[in-house]
Amino acid sequence: MRIEDLQVAFSTEEGPVEALDGVELTIHQGTFHGLIGETGCGKSVTGQTIMGLLDNNARIKKGRIMYREQDLLKLSSRQMERQIRGNEIAMIFQDPGSSLNPLFTIKNQIEEAIKMYRPVPRERREGLILEALQQVKLPDARNLMHRYPHQLSGGMKQRVMIAMMLACNPRLLIADEPTTALDVSIQAQFIKVLKDLKDNLDLTILYITHDLAVISELCDYVSVMYAGRIVENLSMYDLFRDPCHPYTEKLVNSVLGVSTRLDQLEEIPGSVPRLINPPPGCRFHPRCSEVLPVCSQEVPLLKEVKGLHSVACHRR
Amino acid sequence: MNKWGYVGKRLLKTIPIIIGVTLVTFLILHLSPGDPVRIMLGPYATPETVAALRAQYGLDQPLPLQYFSWLGNIAQGDLGTSIRYNRPVTELVQARIGITLTLTLAGLVISVTLGSILGILAALKQNSWLDYLCTFQAMFWISIPGFWLAILLLYIFGLQLRWVPIAGLSGFASVILPALTIGLQEEAWFARPMRAEMLGVLNEGYIKAARAKGVRYYRVVGKHALRNVMVPMITMLALRLPWVIAGSVVVEVVFAWGGMGSLLVNSVLARDYPVVQGILLIIALSVVLANLLADLVYSLIDPRIRVEGGKK
Description:
The complex is a heterodimer. Chain A is α/β, with parallel strands linked by helices. Helices cover 32% and strands 24% of the residues of chain A. The model of chain B has no long low-confidence stretch (mean pLDDT 87).
């Protein structure tokens, strides 16, 4: 999947908000791709744009989302519904508590996905449901599938969500901060499930998060997002050893590791700009410590550093 | 506790409500001016005749005594004898209750169906001309007094166009106008909440998640959203039932149906205490039962609502 120059704006009471301003992103098949950035930088909007599930007040102004030789943005909502969502691209959301319909059993909700994409006789469906639940390491699946969402814990619900989306047999799964609402101990369990899926299935994941630790556990490639733009694309290896953008560098250094002491921890001065009236030029320049005169005038474009590593910074 | 235990307990809880209803109806009737015997005998009756008749119906007894003897009779299934018709109240009611039920049910079916469809459409096409039209028509019907709407419909479709009979109950065609009167009046009470609830539910995460699975939008609305708005809609149904019955009383009189409504109105005018008390008691009972039924249906729809307690 290749996203090119994607621009999305929301109309709000305070005026238009340029949530995405020229996002460039390439996700390679079979990889786990992390999309990282602070809250409100447009990560989730990117995911929802790919799915065609933006809210009504959003408008796609420009750009292409190339997926298997077709532009998703050119498809009708009907085509997205029938051809793309579910069996090509599926998505899990931040809050597992509200993502399952409270009035239907787990079985019913997974079955709904299976009915659409796998034409198997009724008797075999139950087997597929069990398989899907076991795939995400849910214990006692035979019993569990007859339960209702409110009888499950948050971690279990999130695993059911994955099972439900995997039951659609998608090629690409977008995970929008799936661990944010979970307890830390449950997060680890959940990430282990994803890791196992990575080893056993031919699956591509776009993993959206603000949690570097999670990304470092799971992902092969990372795109760093800042205020509606991708500022750096790089491999997991480079993220910790050779970050090029000052923002990426600061982001990495601001993570509290077990070995780092608090006084070694760096914070990024200032706060995330409001997208209603973003700073001109490079949107990071008001917070950047290595700012050049050109930074406030020209928007830096993504430049290749080496191979798949690219960065949008005037200094490099 | 099992379901039937819950039903039993709920039924027991309705007893104080029913007793309260009997007390209030009894007091309102007996303390308001007007004497059934004088109304019946006319202004020229001798005091002796009046006293004799009052004694015959037990109206000379002290009020508490009258009340308790009435309660005692109810417990045995005896609603008393009509002063005006001189026939058992149960008999009078039995002959008419079917008519009233027909009208109430037909009115409810029209209002719930029409209201739900318009409410859902308004929610799906929020802020469109369709949405505004739905709001407008709801306000339009609800602002017209019921009796006037009934007369208007009668005039247009009965007198001018002659599509339907203008009075009485004779086959399906004669049900249309009275049911439509109630249906249109009540429809707003379902269309407006349906729109609001639907808009709320359509913003829920599970709607987006279902769409992310690739479930067709009409199915997302018809299955995932609709079931979630059913609990508040059933509450609305139970709440509106007394109003629908009250509306059918008026409509029945306009269309000269001779159902329980007409009987009630005539009996109030004649101060026919036993009949009025009996009918009010039946209406109160049906409302209490409808609410009980609604509570039971909630737990069928929403697994989070346990039959033992309230909403979680």
